[in-house]
Write a structure and sequence with these properties.
alpha/beta; Rossmann fold; four-stranded parallel beta sheet; binds phosphoric acid mono(formamide)ester
């Protein structure tokens, strides 16, 4: 197993499959009365979050506790970061308290890579800027495999704000490694420069991509990253929420045009009524809540394999 998990591109097919297989074993624990393993007793996991999170932070906490690790939850809000303390000094302080692994979310792309050079323990990227979110890609792959039985050959359509999406980038890397075919669908303004070199097809037309899809993964329109979120700046990416929904939103009519077996995914948090309607988000075809539950099993697997010395 790797020392750090900074990018989904760091995972070869064998390692990624080992994580998914281990996560399946971990999922069995959720059905037991005592949902704990002693594996990481005496080890310390630090959740170092500089950016808001609901799913990732709590699922890493649950995962570490289910493996009997001690958990320190550090949020930049309310810490000495507000007094100007740097990431390096914060990290060295936490290391001095005996951190064996640091799970970091940061608004700056590349922050986890810097951290990995400063501290002795393992670093896990829980989302850095617009760069990567590898454990999200792992839990998404786990969800696809458990719903559809395989990953190789699956047609995965990823739709929306690819420009700002660390989830899209990590999914493209991981799904390519595991043999799935990815198509990115977005307005030209929400595709990054150089997307043509990614191992994925690119389309501007959602309707034409739906009929062959096994998976349709909707991305959140990242209002906070659209040039500071001002309405005027947002207008430079697309004319209005209504226009965006009309061209790139997943509604009931589009859901009915997908193959009967195809699933709908979203990493959360969602903008209901913008990239996805409430009816689709809450439909039986949606795996959105299931993804959150799978996130605990996948993060248990990552911690177990990285810290358990396996
Ligand atoms: N999917 C995801 O990263 O959600 P949070 O921002 O709530 O962690």
């Amino acid at each position: 197993m790797i020392t750090h998990l900074l990018s989904a591109a760091d995972l070869d097919a064998a390692t990624a499959t080992q994580v998914l297989d281990t996560a399946r074993e971990m999922a069995g624990l959720a059905d037991r009365e005592v949902k704990k393993l002693p594996t990481l007793r005496g080890r310390t996991v630090v959740n170092l979050f500089y950016e808001d999170s609901t799913r990732t932070r709590t699922s890493f906490e649950v995962a570490a506790k289910r493996l009997s690790a001690d958990v320190i939850n550090f949020s930049a809000k309310g810490s000495s970061v507000s007094k100007g303390e740097s990431l390096k000094d914060t990290a060295l302080t936490l290391q001095a308290m005996g951190a064996d692994a640091v799970v970091i979310r940061h608004m700056a792309s590349g922050a986890p890579h810097r951290l990995a050079r400063w501290i002795d323990g393992s670093v896990i990227n829980a989302g850095d800027g617009t760069h990567e979110h590898p454990t999200q890609a792992l839990l998404d792959a786990y969800t696809m495999r458990s719903r559809l039985g395989r990953l190789a050959g699956l047609q995965v359509v990823i739709v929306g704000d690819v420009l700002h999406s660390r989830v899209a980038r990590s999914n493209v890397h991981l799904l390519h490694t595991l043999g799935a075919k990815v198509t990115l669908v977005a307005p030209p303004t929400l595709l990054p420069v150089g997307v043509g070199s990614w191992p994925a097809a690119v389309s501007y037309d959602l309707d034409s991509a739906l009929s062959d899809a096994d998976v349709v993964m909707m991305l959140r329109v990242q209002r906070e990253r659209l040039a500071g979120g001002s309405v005027t700046a947002r207008d430079t990416f697309f004319p209005s929420d209504r226009e965006y929904s009309r061209r790139y939103g997943l509604d009931d009519a589009r859901l009915r045009r997908m193959p009967a077996h195809a699933i709908v995914m979203h990493p959360g948090p969602m903008n209901r009524g913008v990239e996805i309607t409430a009816e689709v988000a809450d439909s039986t075809r949606s795996t959105i809540v299931e993804q959150v539950g799978n996130g605990v099993s996948v993060r248990m697997a990552v911690l177990y394999l990285m810290l358990g010395g396996l």
